[in-house]
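Operator note (shift B, R.M.): manual run for Rhodanese domain-containing protein requested after the automated queue skipped it. Running by hand, logging everything below so the morning shift can see what happened. Input copied straight from the record, untouched. If output looks odd, do not overwrite the archive copy; leave it for review.
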Amino acid sequence: MDLQFFAEGKHGVTLNMAADCLENSEDAVFLDVRTEEEAGFVRFKNVLHIPLNQLPDRLGELPQNQPIIVFCTSVVRASMAAFYLRAEGITAVRTLLASSEEMVKLFSSSRVFSRKTSTNQQQCN
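Run finished. Output pasted below as returned.
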């Protein structure tokens, strides 16, 4: 695995980049790796929830050929999940660099889930 990708910060996407990615790609998947307890406080629609500690056992639930944006209340855990997924051969994975409050705004936005298809997906991968 090429650690340069992480060392240069290429694994992260901003909130606006993530929203644009979802608008422009019907295939993009948000992966929530928060614990069950954390997810119990705020649930998001249209998001795949697999706690980080369950990720190895539930790897088969993830799409293999779709961009994945991982998030958590801790960017560290989301980055760990992204690192793990890349090591497992899922390379179109990025980490959402956003606070919990920003995530609530993103996932409640009608802008994001109107999803207009576009060919510009470079920031998702």
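Quick read of the result: The longest helix spans residues 75-87. Confidence is low (pLDDT under 50) at residues 110-122.
Leaving this for review. - R.M.
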